[in-house]
Each structure stands twice: as structure tokens, then as C-alpha cells.
Amino acid sequence: MTSSKLDIYCLAIGGTGMAPLACLLQEQGHRVRGTDGPLYPPMSTLLEQTGIHPLVGYDPAHLQPHPDLPLPDLVIIGNAIHRNNPEAVEAERLGLPILSMPQALARFFLERHRSLVVAGTHGKTTTTAIAAWVYAACGRDPGYLIGGAPNDLPASFHDGAGDRFIVEGDEYNAAYFDRGPKFLHYRPETLLLTSAEYDHADLYPTPEALWDAYARLLALLPADGLLVACGDSPKVRELAAGARCRTIFYGLEPGNDLHPLGEIEALPEGSRFRIRDLEPGESGETGEEVEITLPLAGDHNVSNCLAVWAAARRDGLPATEVAVALGRFHGVKRRLEELGTARGVTVVDDFAHHPTAVEKTLAALRQRYPGRRVVTLFEPRSLTAGRGFFFEPYRQAFAGADRVLFAPIFHNGRLAPEERLDFTTLAAELSAAGVPAEVCADNAGVLRRSLEEAREGSVVVTMSSGSFDGMPHRVLAALREASPELSPNDPR
User: Fold this and answer.
1) For labeling, which of 101, 127, 175, 399 is most exposed (least CB within 10 Å)?
2) 42: cis peptide before it, omega within 30°?
3) CA–CA separation, 429 and 144 (whole Å)
4) Alpha carbon distance 159, 112 (integer Å)
């Protein structure tokens, strides 16, 4: 199937994994088309820049042959598609070959490369982007697929000529007909495991079910492969004990094989730290100290860097070149992404939706914008973000903000009353502890209240794993409308 050029149709083509896969397939020479609901950046922009123009909405007629458009040779179905989707039903009725997104990635790309898979509850996208950037900057021309838009690479996808393919290993399900986690299709030769916390309660009814999925992923590593695991997490260490290959533990704590030496120097523009190299450097000596200046805020990004360092050095990338590449990495869109400043108010967009991510994002904002007032707009978007068991972790996480505005639970109707987190009580407890918080009736209310709170010197950060109704861009646009002295392209 991989040798000839095919007409490929993608259902839910705008997903964070599906969109770059569609672009990869087109780069490989296939004709790619597809459909989705309304799309939003960065994936809508990615498809448009690649010349793929999706249809909007699902209609069985989309799959019917036309004079200049035959039946698809293959249909790739994203995990947002339900079994009763009219186009999925039609594809099955027509007997068209069907693959899930990870099945297609494995078939068309991973057979020709050694897979470097990045998995974990937190940090997958950024760590995958760091790895892709480092290998590319060091001349290795890796293939890669990243579930986000990296700032330093031409795109979030590439079918490289090098031996490595770097892929974000998502634990979410592959498709309605392929219920296992995506990462089980990715044939890891090297695995970077960044964290292991409970998430995706809609798919994993207990933490143990999620740990079992990670254990199955680790079991795929060959005996001569490599596991790079975050040793700061007791659960990651527990899971790593089941790997049959070499394991390198990294993290911020001294008990890891790879860790910062002394204190991390926190700068507004990033972080500076030193490590002791694990592998022979260019001089042939072991254990040399290396200084790294990372232009990203937050200790969690230092940790992400260490994971990539371990894999890159094991693959023989020179220490000096890796350090230089890390010093030129500028992050991923929607991960602490500064969108602009108007009326003295800076707007930042972030993907955080899990309490740990919220806490780390707020800490990084404190580093980047010392002394400034942080107004947090939070949308409980995922099917886990609005669940009651996150009450106490959220209470601790949002303590790092100065002001919190909660949007309604996005999937409120899909959660039983006893499952839902009581954000009204959470807001009351945060307010009583000195962090004024409130629950808004709708997103229009969030926008209105954010503008009332956004006084000069504030940093407004939006947190959501979805579009949030374009909230960060709407906030910035409203601020700029009130600032006629600023041009639309003012970078401040």
C-alpha cells in the first residue's frame, strides 16, 4: 500500500494528530482530502498552508465518486469520529479500506525509520518538538509528527531522510474500531516517558487501567532499545522497572542519572543550568560539565530538555551541537505562547487543562513576568478536566494565580451530576484563601469579566485544551480596539 500513490480521505482531518499526518501523506505524494467540523488554528492554518482544503460537515455524498474525483483508495478515521458518523457508515458500506490515524502513520512512515516516541501525561508536545528541532539542527534530518505547531521548525511534520522518526505518543484511543491507545502502534526503539498521572477518565475508568496502557507500551521496547524516564515521578520509576532495555532516569532531583548541577538560574527570558554529560563528548572524556541556556521559562521545560539530551547523546549527536540547538529552541504555539500586548496587558495562550499543568504554567508565568498580576481564564474542556476528583489539585494549582475566571464545563452534559467538579465551591475556597475567583455563566461572560480585570500591568492567560471560542485572540482584539494608538501587527 505504501509504494503507489493513493487517493486518501481523512475523517476529522483537523485533529492535532490527523492534520500533520494528512500533510505528511501529501508530502509523500498522495492525494489527500477530507472533512471535519469547524476548524481553528493552528491546525486549520497548517492545512491551508499545505494546500489541503477540508470540507465542513459530514455527508455520505462526500465519498461518492465524481467525474474528476474517484472513490478514495483509503479512508483514515480520527478518534473524534463515532461509529454512527454518516461518512464512517458510508465508508464501511462501500467496503473502502479503513485505518486509524496511528495505523496509517505506522504503515506509511515508521517501517522505514527507528521510532523515538515521547509519551506521558504532561510535556509530550513540547518534548517531541524539542527532539525534532535538536535532531534537525544537528543535521540528522529526522522524520517527525508533532501534535502542535513548533515555532522553530517549518511545520509540525516532516518525512525525513534520516534514520529517526520522532513522534508524540498519545495515550488516547486510536479510533472507534481501534480502541487501544495510539502509542501502541508506534514501535518504539527509544521511549521518552515524561510523567504518569491519572487523566482521560472517559477512557481509563481507574488509574490502574492507564498504568496498564503505559506498561504495554514499555513492553514494546526491544532489549537493545532505550527508555529515558522521568525519575522525579515514583509512578514512572515503578513502570520503568518493567522495561527490558537500558533505562536512563532524568529529572530535577539529584537522585537521577541526568539532572541539573546546583540551582537552575531562572531568568525572565528562560533558564540557565549545568549538567554532567552521560556520554563521551567530542574530546572522548566522560562526565564533562555542560552549560545550557534554554529560552523557555519553567523548570518543567528544563526537565523536558534533559529527556531529549539523553536520547540525542545516546544517538551520537555531539554535546556542543545539542547544547547550541537547545539554546535556539523557542517553544510551541499554545504552550505559554505570548500573543501580544495592548493597554499594558499581555495576553498568553496555554494548553493547560490538568492541575499539574496549570500549576507549572503559572509558575513559569511568574518566572517570565516577575511581579506582574496574573489573571487566569480557565475552560474545563476535556472529559477529565471537569471531574470532581480534581477539586483539591485544582485548589492548590490555582493558588498561583492572582485572579481566576472559570468558564462552564465544556462536556457538562456528558458527566453525571456526581462526577462533576463543583467550580462554584472551588471559586469560593480560592477567594477565601486570597485568590479572587468566580464562575462565569458562559464564554461571553468570561470575555467581559477578563476585560474588566485586565488593567495595565496584568498578564491574562487563557488555559484550555480546545479552542475556548477563540478566547485569547478575542481578548487581545478587544484590548487593541480600545487602544487606537496600536496597530494590529504591534508586537508588544
Assistant:
1) 399
2) yes
3) 44
4) 10
Compute the radius of gyration of the chain from its Cα atoms. 23
Cβ 189 vs Cβ 221: under 8 Å: yes
Pairing of the two strands 373-378 and 345-350: unpaired
Write out the DSSP string of 325-372: HHTT---BTTSSEEEEEETTEEEEEE---SHHHHHHHHHHHHHHSTT-
Q: Cα separation of 87 and 450, whole Å?
A: 40
φ and ψ at residue 415, rounded to 5 degrees = -110, 135
Residue 356: Cβ within 10 Å count: 18
- Cα dist from 266 to 294, 358, 363, 371, whole Å: 10, 19, 11, 14
Q: How far apart are CA 135 and CA 152, in angstroms?
A: 12
Separation CA 476–CA 492 (nearest Å): 11
Q: In Å, what is the CA distance from 449 to each residue of 292, 299, 404, 438, 441?
A: 41, 31, 10, 10, 11
For 441, list phi and psi in degrees, rounded to 5. Answer: -70, -30
CA end-to-end span of the chain:
50
Here the contacts of 83-86 (C-beta below 8 Å, separation 24 or greater) are: 83/176, 83/177, 85/11, 85/58, 86/58, 86/59, 86/60
| For range 193-216, the mean pLDDT | 92
Contacts of 434 (CB under 8 A, 6+ apart): none
**Of 267, 276, 318, 312, the residue nearest 294 (C-alpha):** 267
d(CA 419, CA 446): 24
Q: Which three cell numbers stand for residue 264?
A: 537552575
What pTM, to 2 d.p., does this model score?
0.89
Cβ(186)–Cβ(148) below 8 Å: no
Q: Is 56 helix (H, G, I), strand (E, B) or coil?
A: strand
Cell readout for 322 is 545539542
Cα 73–Cα 76–Cα 80 angle in degrees, nearest 5: 155
Whole-angstrom Cα distance, residue 462 to residue 325?
29
The residue assigned the cell 505570548 is: 338
What residues form DSSP beta bridges with 31?
7
Q: Are 435 and 398 in contact (CB under 8 A)?
A: yes
Cβ atoms within 10 Å of 108's Cβ, excluding its own: 22
The set of cell numbers assigned to 472 is 485569547
Could you tell me if residue 463 is left (phi over 0), alpha (psi between -120 and 50 degrees) or otherwise beta?
A: beta
Alpha carbon distance 36, 13 (integer Å): 6
307-360: pLDDT as tens digits: 999 999 999 999 999 999 999 999 998 899 999 999 999 999 999 999 999 999
Contact 331, 207 (CB under 8 A): no
pLDDT in tens, 353-363: 999 999 999 99
Residue 441: Cβ within 10 Å count: 9
List for the chain the helix, strand, coil content (%; round to 5).
Answer: 35, 25, 45
Asked if 298 and 333 count as a contact pair (C-beta separation under 8 A), the reply is no
**Which residue in the block uniquely carries the three cell numbers 514512572?**
236
